[in-house]
């Protein structure tokens, strides 16, 4: 393990000041200084030599109480950035207002990891692409410009949506799919003050720069995640399909919320996991459903729209039919929810 | 009694809790890397990231300059050390630091020794090498892979078995199939990581390392280091999962010993999960072609099994499971052929039921296909082809309870409720499938020595250089001694896992219970004999009981007429405080050299198909129900039933646990486990438990293990058939059978995943 400096600031502005004084203008994933909260992803990648920060700024001693609180008011759930996944998954009011939030957390990782991982850290988790994880392979995300071993390699786990010629690594998170479906907004604090970012704008497509993963600057820290909810977000769920029953990443998942007028869709919110390079809002599928009677055929039409642009590779062709069926099943199951 | 502790039936011992259970669940059991060592330095391996070529330059300067780095052992530093040998005790002939040739990805290129683990790890990361690279051959279909017949290449696989005229019988068979099957690369992934701790005291070397073969390793390590075996001690008190991976010694052990000698202090090297995939053994991928011909009545007339196995470039590791599949049923004619394919890979090795897992998977999947082709119930198909004698040599089975196992498992499973029509059974959105398959494992035993001491106060100490790999061998050895010496099991202490103890064979091939218990039994008989002579002698407390048969119970010597003498009184009459007996057991048919070979770490196996008078196997029948989502196609296994007969069951608790664990592993083999190889580079890419999936608790629902009573006095004095490797044989085929029943899809290549069923 490389030696590194471990900083423990006690409030947000001190943390931002610390990072600002060491940030070197590079993308946060490449910077010498990085934030750490639960550490369930970063510590792993430091052990593997994938992440090699010289300085870690630990967020666990920050004293602002709101960072650890879940507040529900005026149609918004506000999750403090340091709330642990397990705590959010177990909250009765979160389950009641937005079942898909709780389900996306409950089906992620293991109980032990959920008890450590922070919500903000969770949405910023990095890909588990096998070629990214091991430093001896070329990887444009890890070492910009070095190439991509997955493109013509073993890519069963890889993305079919949002890919580029530089990167096909999947974004593996679950919670982010629920957040993007519900149009969440994140609160951010950096050396230039505070700002809000729509969740849909937080992650960036790999394009030519897969090492740049988010809109955040290296000195910016997420302080809260705001999720608007309404009466109809009670009709929502997260369906996750994986090789084994627990503790596995999604081969395909679907986060669905439906605003129904009888059998007819007033509004649909759809996000797809396990199949895309970033949290993936399937807007074409949503539009295909608006004003339609939600039956098997309408669901299939929406699923076709969601995957119209899919670019499968040698080992992940099955993700297209699987992704579609996962979405169809999620739509029908959500339609049939008793709320 | 409860589910974990089944009530013993005929010829079964009590479900005594494991003698080390408390230590294990409270974290007090000392695994080799946990044992405290003063002044220890830490070693971390640096490994190659190419699979074939030569090291042209090794850059060590940055690592040497790291604070805390003490030494680096690399190519050229093994002067005076002999290369490893491939065989029962050596995993591979590759001596990674003996020359600059790279034989496989992840080959050891250096060991960095430092004051702390962290410094050693960082030092290892700083090492880089330049290579003259060649294009490697990854597997079966790679350019440059070399195929050869397996027969005669390994002492464990002398010849292909054949009987009758297969071609003639097959060509005229009324119903036949001709199919190919495959199993993937698999790694054991025991949760306890591999490690070596080496300590020198003058000329004497002590190694702490998880090992299934302390005696064999002592001899082999001494040979490599050119020192007297008397000066080598291997200590392995507890093992956190082995499954064959800790059977053969790897090149690392000698390298760490050399490092400890150079830095003049103990060195401990714990291998990372990733590095273990390449520096330890594994189950190589296999391919099979099976042809079966039968009459319309379902009687098989022709059976052919051809197998192909991958091995490393230099070593002919072969499993050759045709010796078991060729004897499974009453085939009429048998043709088998096994081929090896040499590729640029690390050398494979033993992994739980090495031959049977892949070969019986292929056979049983084919049997299920044949039953479908015949329109016959798969259980009935097996019943019709149940042999009186094995078809290769015409020898009888010492015992064979397969049909009994099928009957009991089928009833418990509710096989009669199965609608044989494909895709006919549903539960809401879920397709229901039911399947079955046969489990078989050869029953062997090997020479073994044990020392038993009984003191006047009824305390017993059993010493045997066998290994507690999680099977419960310590417990059953204690049970055997307690039963024969008539004391409570709490009074028996068992010492194992140390090459300073009386030698035992490798803990592999499911031989340990039979071999260890037979040796312990023999030593106990000698103790009893001394006590009986003294007790019934002229000055003994039972003087005058003549030739009455004596026994021991409740710390007493008792006569069949009801007279008894306390142990203490017998000892008093003998004027001694303890009796200690050293016994050497050798199975029937052992060669005159058998015991000599035991002490040389090369214990010979007897039993299975090797004996003159009979063949010896344990059998089982496994039934599996799968549920497959009709839409998204994920596969789940809500319940399994296995019935197994394995001679004398020493302990119903540990036996059930072994069989259940095997069946659960079978789920992993059917649905999850596969080491993925990047064919371009001959490199493994999923070298961790994130991507190498094994079942978790949520995947395993009801697992019902039925122990079927069986008496077999022929197998060994203890009457025990090993069962540690029985439970996982057949499971994957039963799952494949159930998947076919649910979906009509016959999946012949493992693992069976959503990918296979979604389109």
Automatic annotation (TrEMBL), chain A:
<dbReference type="InterPro" id="IPR016166">
    <property type="entry name" value="FAD-bd_PCMH"/>
</dbReference>
<keyword id="KW-0285">Flavoprotein</keyword>
<dbReference type="Pfam" id="PF03450">
    <property type="entry name" value="CO_deh_flav_C"/>
</dbReference>
<dbReference type="GO" id="GO:0016491">
    <property type="term" value="F:oxidoreductase activity"/>
</dbReference>
<dbReference type="Pfam" id="PF00941">
    <property type="entry name" value="FAD_binding_5"/>
</dbReference>
<dbReference type="InterPro" id="IPR002346">
    <property type="entry name" value="Mopterin_DH_FAD-bd"/>
</dbReference>
<dbReference type="InterPro" id="IPR016167">
    <property type="entry name" value="FAD-bd_PCMH_sub1"/>
</dbReference>
<keyword id="KW-0274">FAD</keyword>
<protein>
    <submittedName>
        <fullName>Putative oxidoreductase with FAD-binding domain</fullName>
    </submittedName>
</protein>
<dbReference type="InterPro" id="IPR051312">
    <property type="entry name" value="Diverse_Substr_Oxidored"/>
</dbReference>
<dbReference type="InterPro" id="IPR036683">
    <property type="entry name" value="CO_DH_flav_C_dom_sf"/>
</dbReference>
<feature type="domain" description="FAD-binding PCMH-type">
    <location>
        <begin position="1"/>
        <end position="232"/>
    </location>
</feature>
<dbReference type="GO" id="GO:0071949">
    <property type="term" value="F:FAD binding"/>
</dbReference>
<dbReference type="InterPro" id="IPR016169">
    <property type="entry name" value="FAD-bd_PCMH_sub2"/>
</dbReference>
<dbReference type="InterPro" id="IPR036318">
    <property type="entry name" value="FAD-bd_PCMH-like_sf"/>
</dbReference>
<dbReference type="InterPro" id="IPR005107">
    <property type="entry name" value="CO_DH_flav_C"/>
</dbReference>
Automatic annotation (TrEMBL), chain B:
<dbReference type="Pfam" id="PF01315">
    <property type="entry name" value="Ald_Xan_dh_C"/>
</dbReference>
<dbReference type="Pfam" id="PF20256">
    <property type="entry name" value="MoCoBD_2"/>
</dbReference>
<dbReference type="InterPro" id="IPR036856">
    <property type="entry name" value="Ald_Oxase/Xan_DH_a/b_sf"/>
</dbReference>
<dbReference type="InterPro" id="IPR046867">
    <property type="entry name" value="AldOxase/xan_DH_MoCoBD2"/>
</dbReference>
<dbReference type="InterPro" id="IPR008274">
    <property type="entry name" value="AldOxase/xan_DH_MoCoBD1"/>
</dbReference>
<dbReference type="GO" id="GO:0005506">
    <property type="term" value="F:iron ion binding"/>
</dbReference>
<protein>
    <submittedName>
        <fullName>Putative oxidoreductase with molybdenum-binding domain</fullName>
    </submittedName>
</protein>
<keyword id="KW-0500">Molybdenum</keyword>
<keyword id="KW-0560">Oxidoreductase</keyword>
<dbReference type="InterPro" id="IPR037165">
    <property type="entry name" value="AldOxase/xan_DH_Mopterin-bd_sf"/>
</dbReference>
<dbReference type="InterPro" id="IPR000674">
    <property type="entry name" value="Ald_Oxase/Xan_DH_a/b"/>
</dbReference>
<dbReference type="Pfam" id="PF02738">
    <property type="entry name" value="MoCoBD_1"/>
</dbReference>
<dbReference type="InterPro" id="IPR016208">
    <property type="entry name" value="Ald_Oxase/xanthine_DH-like"/>
</dbReference>
<dbReference type="GO" id="GO:0016491">
    <property type="term" value="F:oxidoreductase activity"/>
</dbReference>
<feature type="domain" description="Aldehyde oxidase/xanthine dehydrogenase a/b hammerhead">
    <location>
        <begin position="26"/>
        <end position="135"/>
    </location>
</feature>
